[in-house]
Design brief:
The protein is an alpha+beta fold and 789 residues long. The strands form four sheets. The protein has a six-stranded mixed β-sheet with strand order 12-13-11-14-15-16, sandwiched between helices. Strands 2-3-1-4 form a four-stranded antiparallel β-sheet, with helices on both faces. A hairpin with a 5-residue loop joins strand 6 and strand 7. The longest helix has 31 residues. The protein is globular.
Amino acid sequence: MIDQEMADIYYGSLLHDLGKLVQRADINSKRASHQTFGADFLAQYTDNQNIIDALRYHHNQFGTKNKNTNLRTAKVADNAPVYLTYIGDNIAAGTDRRYEEELQSGWDSKTPWDSKTPMSDIFNRFSLKQGKRYLPASSLDEEDFTKMEPLNFRSDFTQAEYAKILETFKAGIMSVKLTPEYVDSVLNLVEGIMSQIPSDTASNGEPDISLYDHMKLTAAFACSAKQYLDQLGIDDYKTEILKHTGKFYERPSYLMVGYRFEGSEDFINSITSKGAYKQLKSRAFYVEMLVRNFLDDLLDRLNLTGANILYQNSHDGLLVVGNTTQNVQGIKQAQKELNDFLTKKFGTKLYMAIGFVEFSSNQVKVRFTKTSEEAAAEYKRVGQNYAWIFDDIEKQINANSLQRYQKADLLQLNKQGKRQGRECAVCHSVSDLLPDENKCVLCDTLENFSKSIQNEEYFLVNQDSSGLQLGEHTYLHTTTEDEIKDQTISGRVYAKNSFKSGYNQATHIWVSDYSESENNDFTSYADRDWTEKDGHTVGIRRLGSLMIDIDDLRSNFLTGFYPQDEGKYTTISRFAEFSRRIDLFFKLYLNQFAEDSEYHLSIIYSQGDKVFILGAWDDLLDFVQILHDEFAKWTDGKLTFSAGLGMFNPSTPINIISRETNELLNAAKLEGKDRIALFAKDNILTFSDYRDDILYGKLVTIQEFFDHENKRGKAFIYKLISLIRERDEQDRISFARLAYYLSRLESESENKQAFKEFKEKLIEWFDDELEIKQAELALMLYVYSIREE
């Protein structure tokens, strides 16, 4: 938990532009600046003058109009937190291509603003083609995913809509205090309410950065700047920051920290015991909480907050912190403590790799220019700096991963390897086994925890050893809203898939945990009770397995904003906004979409850019295509994903299902982007071919014919498949054999016209190698759907 001094800087910076929301909701919005609106509003809920001053004086403007909010003339102490908010705001704004106020004399009065402006979709400025889409004019609603979907038309904010949003914020701010215990709750509140409100509504700007992301980044830079100046022994912020702003911009004040959590997929899927399916979701959630707990412990150690996280998931993430010796030591120590625990508990299965690079403000923000040529050069310079920073972090992470173990670690691993005797039947560990059971403590706890993960909303991390162990002295438990309100518990509280606020409550966690199976018995998806026809169960009794992976996500992250306007839109805020929107889709949106779809499936995990789903094989055929189309809508067609879809006997161990489905996915990606491997590595199609030629093309034609063909059933289909497989481009006898066979049966058909049309269509497909291969696949899918067990 941060101290009160850092809390003042955090709250003042996180809420510094609150006045924009208040101003846009006020009928007399021109009567004062957003600084005045914000300060006067917040003064109703706190008497902390440091925080109120940060809202009132965070601009340094020349001219006479805003003398009462001008930092240069403000009567505040030389070490007041407002100076840190000021510099944090300048850097955050500068990275979004808004120059510093002191270099734009009179900008506040000359720039036309439009408070009705909705937030632009982050993908408008992504990739080569400029988009023209907008987010709905509302706050983010975690229970209604339609309010997250981009629109192809402009739906303006109204004063009434802003007033409604402000009332929601009032209710939230009244339930908290601006003290260290509530830092994460207030971050929740701001994200939930302001992540679809534009920060900048200048008519000549690009309003694709949310008020939430701008204020969050301001807090990150402000709090980190304090750490850097503390190390230098500087507390005269007025001189250092206000009078020598340019000099501060050149200082290497910040560290960009990246992490990658390795081995999580194998950890989740490598279990082989009969009851392994019940552990899948709890293992996936356990990985989520291992990483989230590590980040929160790290931030507590560094005296920082969740605002310093640019983006995070259970696979990788980025943070901005102050460039101090103490922070570097804290990062290394936190990494060592987690990896020591992982080594002791899991051997070499899991590892947290970290890299970090120092940078100055001027490396990531555009400096003031006078001509378009100078501006283009600045955009290029900053873009190259980002590429260098991210590339250096990646190199450090890779090197860290390759040299992960020291002598003491190897001794510990060797000691584990010499253990003899029983092993856990689930994970094969030989440590922490329960007495008289072939199961370890962790697997037993995970199995018992499985249902809680799906049903519970609140989780607690503390030192009570009766829970699920996350570290040497930290354990995970479930808790209730009543226990939180009554303050009868101690520890760090998490709210799952919800923007809840409260005392000591940590940032929400998004978890894709939808499951149509209440008891997590995923083998039930192979049952066909829901496909009964004429009193008979139809369809092959198999379990479907789906893996999805975004194509070239890392390269798109690094270069996606560069193609437009000489790289003008390559900024930290857009990286954060982009990552958050991707995370929203594959966590919150996917969860709600799966639930509303009523398909028989369970999301095992969604981490980073990869998703693993088990379900009824025929439901997954439709689901993956619909999800693909939804993702295209979400990203304006500028990102794609590839997929592997497998079909397995329900008794197949999950480690085999996972491995073979992943191999299908990799085979699809090797063929190119936007592809699906269907059941086998030689059945790879583009999603457009899968949709148009298989799912809604040949399969529909085949279904319509056989559903009305009483005399010809599975034997006829198997014969057709056999003839197709005998097809030879060089020897035309196979063509004649098919034509003869179909003509002979046509004469016996009760519906000769329908049979003739089907025959002609099949012969047409047979004449093209690609078409007939697709027809064979469609015939197989149809026979799977009618086969009785």
